[in-house]
Amino acid sequence: MSVIDVHTHVFPRLSRSEARVLAGAGEPWLREHGDGTGTIMSGDDEFRPVGVELWDPEARVAAMDRSGVDVQAVSSTPLMFGYGAEAGRAADWCELVNQRILDYCAQAPDRLLPLCQVPLQDVELACETVTKAAAAGHRGVHIGNHVGERYPDDAGIVEFLAHCAREGVPVLMHPWDMLGGDRMAGRYMLPWLVGMAAETQLSILSLILSGAFERIPESLRLCLCHGGGSFAYLLGRADNAWHNRDIVRADSPRPPSAYTGRFFVDSAVFDPRALRLLVEVMGAGRVMLGTDFPFPLGELEPGATVRACAELTGDERAAILGGNARRFFSLDER
Predict the structure, then answer these.
(1) Hey, which bits of the chain come out as E strands?
(2) 33-76: pLDDT as tens digits
(3) pTM here?
(4) Could you tell me if 245 and 218 are in contact, meaning their C-beta atoms sit under 8 angstroms apart?
(5) CATH numbers and ranges of domains, the chain
(6) Which of 265, 273, 266, 268 shows the shortest CA–CA distance to 300?
(7) What InterPro entries is this protein classified in (predicted)?
(8) What distance in Å separates the CA atoms of residue 17 and residue 72, rounded to the nearest whole number?
């Protein structure tokens, strides 16, 4: 049985001088401490303490071996998106980051699948970047779920997703820069505990209720992180609203539950009961193992929730742990 983790992050070695291409837009860089630990920096500010697996491929593969993971899809840490920068500088930054991710994954090409990032603030540049990155060896693209106030129903982002569908490039959409931060900042990591789930729910419903899925080719392979946020739990509420309020169904010809076959979610829900509901809502063929490795809010024992969900059949468990990801990334075709 293959075990493939579709939701993991990397922060390759990037110096402060290299990060200055994003001057005024975060300047993310890595400060190593020389003892297997480091700090992600945002300009002069400390953003997050991190461990060596985040930037050292040998350490990552050793951790994968210890936890029984065969393959990881490796995507940038969301702080690195660069969406706040001028588009030309962001494109230069993405080219640098994408090359570093390729170099990182090249140390274990059978184990690490590189995902690129793009300057999503400019749809033309984003399309050019993802096409170039795919030709260079990237196996998919990692994007944030919004650019400022532009969510996935934005015409430009819809155009980018349609381009990825036509190019056959899988898309991993990750929540970031969470809403409600002014009300939750500094309290118990609430932006990550509450805001991330809300961001993902907002992204899915914006794609559905705006009619965006009607304009995007059905060939798009799109995965939303963190179990789809609160989508599965609140789907009944959304369907009820669609059936009973004209304003909800104005742009969506079908209720939200009719669109669960248009996207994937990862399994990062941490509770077998939640996973059981997620599989009932999405179908076992639309859920893939995701851990958020190597961050401490992720699943520290990869696949533990999937294995602990007694209601899954053996075939369903195998599909979630790896079979669905093989299809998502077309691994057997390669």
Answers:
(1) 4-10, 28-32, 37-42, 45-51, 71-76, 112-116, 140-144, 171-174, 222-224, 264-266, 287-288
(2) 999 999 999 999 999 999 999 999 999 999 999 999 999 999 99
(3) 0.96
(4) no
(5) 4-11+52-328 (3.20.20.140)
(6) 268
(7) ACMSD (IPR032465), Amidohydro-rel (IPR006680), Metal_Hydrolase (IPR032466)
(8) 29
